[in-house]
Each structure stands twice: as structure tokens, then as C-alpha cells.
Amino acid sequence: DVKTDLNLLLECLKYQMDCPVSQKEALITIYSICQQNSEASEYFREIGGLMFINDLAKSSVHCIVKEAALFTLGVIIESNVYCQQTLCTSALFEDLILFLINKDSGVNLKRMSVYVILVLVSNNSNGQTYVRDTGCIGLLLQLFRTTLSTSKMNLSDENTNQCYQLWSSVCSTLCACVNNPQNEDNQNICCSVFPYAQEWLESCTEPEIVRPICSFVGLTVANNSYVQKYFVSVGGLDTLAKVLIKLMQDSCTSQSSTKLAVVVTKTLDACIANDSAMGVVLTKYHTVSELLKLLSNDTLDTGEKISIILTIGHCTEVCEENQCELLQNNGLPLMIQVLTESQDEELNKAATFVLQNCKQMTEQLSLKINGNSLNVNNAEELDMQVRKRSLQDYWKKAKEILHRIKLIEKEHDEERVRGGICVNSSSEDNIEASKYHEVNPADRKTCTERTHKEVHGPQLTSKSDDQVLAPPVCYSPLKNKIINTMDPVNACARQSEQSNISCSVNELQTGSVLQSRSINEKTACVKNLSILQWDFFLPNLDQHSFYSERTREEKSTSTTSACHKMTDLRCIGCTAGGLSFDSKTFTKMLQSCSYQCERHKVILEAEERYRKELRKSALCNNTRYATYE
């Protein structure tokens, strides 16, 4: 079994001291058994094999034995945490330093030594402390600077490839020295080689170079504001942005460049995550637009998309110019698409983060984009631009509505010629009912002001139960209800439903007092309708939601026989309560009728006056706007 084999192999190592080849073969067999086998590694430690190999690596005069012994130590340490704790001593780090500084040590021996350092510090805060206290981390940084030359990057050459393998191992070891757990002291030491890392990135965009450097930089700056600021100060963020542009240009023909661009993106995010204000550096490279292009790539997996969106979020968190760039490149619709199509919770959170960053700035930035006015700092000047642009839109729609009104008036005049107007008389007994329902001037003024206030008031869902129009003949209470609309044109189209109106016997009277009173009613009605409809036509310029008014009449029924006698005195508008109309079709229907009751006659005359007032106001405002221009 495994234990027997390990005992025999240990004995072989002890009795083959003069045969380095046999020792090497025994060591290879041992690490093949212990690799990813924690129990076997633990048993080998218990029988003293771990310490024997440690001594063998230091005492052997044969290079191949040293290399094999160090590699076997690394495999066993990596497989079992107890073996890691046993060998994690300052003495072992000092021995490894000797291997690294010895001029007789070959590249492969140095590589094996670095590998042992790597497994000693991985997920081990004690190892991270020892690597710093013994000065081993300084030696690793020296290897990072000197092992590989930027002018000799031919990996097909055997010697160059060996140097690259050592350099790559050094990068991995430095990553373990600063991360998992995070070690700020080691991060502060490792940032000294950032200028060299920047030089590498500027001279080479090969994956073999970019990936190790991005991993090292990303972990070194992670959650460390001091190191992040230092990296930006030496131009590191600029260099990463340039590398991203280069990779995005190559991504059209190379999928590997797309994947490498994601790696660079993660590093960018790590550099600005703790201080989003540093994202302003990226504006001159249009990094946000490059990230949006990268996000549109179909080959990305969910994890890569999350990294890209988070980077966009940190770029736009406090930087207005990056937010502007996001809007210019249709970034917000793309974020909304991610929210609607993705089922991944983390991806949705990342997209929501971006949307929240730009929520308050969207309207202001949209104006600045269209007007090319990013340099506007005066709040009053900005508000004037908002109003000016809004007025242009409103008057354009106003002209369309005026054109429609002219067509309606033309049709109305033609129908008025064909139809006659019948004046009906009522009984003097209706005078008291008229007085009861009459609205005095003070009440009308109060009602008009209240209605005007409610249309423009901040309570968007408020309702008005005030009576605006008191019909002279058949009274029916009106209830105003506010509904939302996003289009000021639609806000002018008011939908009305008319119900059957029943009248009692004492209202079937005629009198001269009623006629004189109806003139006052018409005047109040015209004022009220003009104010209401004009407010809807020109809403508050600071609001984006416009409100229209629907009126609904409460049905009233009467069982008296006298009500049936009124059928002949009611116009088509009174008897069409069960049908569905809007303001346009209902007006046409009333105009086509040869007879209108007193109530609907007032409504038609009020509409006609409203149109006249509308044309006058439009002409006046056009004149003022031309003067303003």
C-alpha cells in the first residue's frame, strides 16, 4: 500500500547517497504519491521523511538532487497544511535565500526555490511575515526587475524561456506575499517595482507578460488606498488604459485579445475601487466606451461581464464626464437589457450599481451632451437652457394642435350652417333651483384658483372634488381625477364620459331669470375651462410628467313620470351616456345635432372661446420667444 511504498522510498533515499540519479528517481516517485494526497503527505511527515528531504536539499552537492528535493518539498507542503506549518520557519527562508543569491545556482534551482517560497506564504500570514522579516521579499523584487529583459522576449529560445519561467514564478510568489490574507506591509514594499511593471506593459502586450503583471498589480493595489494613489502617480493607470485600447483593437481578429482585455479591466477596477475619483484619469482615453464595446462581446461568460460592469460602475460613480460618456454610448439601455435578460443575481446587482450612479445625473448630462455644454458651471445658465429647449418642443407641438383646431373649427362652421339652434324655455319654478346651484363670483374665483393650484401642485396624485361648472338646467356633480401622461399633446386630449341625466318635475320650467343667469354661467365656465386646458397645454417646465383631466358624472335616476316628458327637450349629448367618446368625437356629435340643451350649448361655446384664447396666447408667446431668441 501507500504507507509501505513511502517507507521503502525513504530507505532508498538514505542508502543511495552516492547515487544522485537513484535519489532523483526516488524523490520523483515520492512527490507523485503525495501530490494532492493530504493523508500520504501527513504520513510521510510522521515517519520523518519531510525533514530528511529538507536536510537533503541543503546538504547534497548534486544539483539535480537539490532541484528534485526542493520540488518534492513544495508538493508535500502544498498538499498538507501541517507540513506547511512544520517547515514555515525563518531558517528555511534563509536557506532558500542562499540558493537564490548563489552564483552557482542555475535558473532551474532558483525556480524550485521560488516555488517553495510560494507554497510557504500561500494562505499563511506567518509565511508572509517571515518572507518580509528575512528580507526574502526584497530578493524576489530584485528577480522581478532583472530576470527578464524587455529587449529579449523570444520565448522560443530555450534560455529565454527558462528565464521567463523563473520570472513568472516570481510574479506568482509576490502575489501570494500580498494577498490571501491581505498584507498591507508587503503591499507597500511591492509597489516599489510598479515603474518596472509599467515599462513591461508599455513595451509588450503579449499574454505571457500582461497576465502575470496584471495579477501582481491588481493584488498589490487591492484595498490599499496608499498603493493605489502611488500607482496612479507613476502613470500606471494611463498605461493600463492604453493597453486596453490596443487589445480592443486586436479583439476583432483575436479572441485571446478579448480575454486579455478582461484581465486588464479587472486590474483597472482594483486600482480605482477604493477611490472612484481617480477614474477621472480614464476619461481622456474613453475607457468607458471601450468597456461598453467589450461588454457587447458574445464570447464573455457571466463572471467576465460582472467584472466589466463593476469597472464601469466605479468609473461612473463620481466622475461626471464618465457618466456623460456612458450616456453617449447607449450604456444605460445596455444596463437595462442586462437587468431584463439576466437571471444571475450578482450580474443584476452590478448593473443596478451602474444605474444608481447615473440616476440623478441623467437629465442634466443628457442636456449637456445635446448642447455640447460640459463647461457650463452656472446653475442659472443651465436652468435657462432647460427652459429654452423645453419651450422649443412645446411650441412645435402647439403648432400641430392649432392646425388640428382649425380643421375642427372648419368642420364646426359647416355643420352650424346646416343645423339650427333651438332655444328652449324653462319654467320660473326653476329659479330657486338655479339660485341653489348658482356659483357666485367669489366662489368661482376660489374654485378657479384651487383648480389651478391643484394642476400645478407638487402632490401629483391629489384629487379635486370642487365643482367647476354648475349646469343651469340639469345639475350633475363633477369629480376631477388626475391621470399621468408623458406627452403634452396627449395631455390636451381629454376623455369624457357622459351619463344620462334625469330631471325632476320642478326643473321643467322656463324663465327669463334663468337665461340671464346662464350668461354668467357661461362666462365662469369659459374662464375655468381656459385655465384648466391652458395649464395642461403648457405644463410646468421643470416637470417631465404632464397631467390631463377626466370628468365623470354620477348617474342620477328618477322614477317620476314627469321625467319621461323631458325626452323631447334633451339633446343627443344627454342621451348618449352609455357610449364611449373622447373630446373630439363628442364635440363633433354635439355639433351635428340641430338642437343643443342649455348645458351642452354652454360647453360648445366654452370650447370656442378656449380656442380663441389659445390662438391669442400662442401668437403672444411666439412673439415673446422670438424676442428672447
From TrEMBL:
InterPro entries reported in the protein's UniProt record: ARM-like, ARM-type_fold, TERB1
Biological processes, Gene Ontology terms: homologous chromosome pairing at meiosis; meiotic attachment of telomere to nuclear envelope
Stored SUPFAM superfamilies: ARM repeat
Protein name: TERB1 protein
Gene name tied to this protein: Terb1
